[in-house]
Amino acid sequence: MERYRVHFTYRGGRFDGRKGKRTVQANDKQEAGSRVSHALDRNGLGTTPRYVTIDWIESLPQENK
């Protein structure tokens, strides 16, 4: 599992065009993007889903433990 920072743009609704980013752990960049979009598209805790388009994904260096 590697760490990725996923940059995205909100689509539709109040946040249309607003940028955001999330750091996730995933096996590859494709999985990282799908994790972020799936998490934000889900209808969680009574909030409306946030539809996003992934702009780019960057790999983060491993933390030294």
Count every helix, treating DSSP H or I runs of 4 or more residues as helices.
Answer: 1
User: How would you write the strand order of the largest sheet?
Assistant: 2-1-3
Total strand segments: 3
Radius of gyration over C-alpha positions, nearest whole angstrom:
13 Å
Kindly name the structural category. alpha+beta
- Proportion of β residues? 35-45%
**Poorly predicted spans:** none
The overall pLDDT average reads: 85
Biggest β-sheet, characterized? 3 strands, antiparallel
**Estimated helix fraction:** 10-25%
**What distance separates the N and C termini?**
14 Å
- Basic shape: elongated
Give an overview in words.
- With 65 residues, the chain is of the alpha+beta class.
- The chain is built from one helix and three strands; from the N terminus they run ββαβ.
- The chain has one helix spanning 29-41; strands at residues 2-11, 19-26, 51-60.
- The radius of gyration is 13 Å and the shape is elongated.
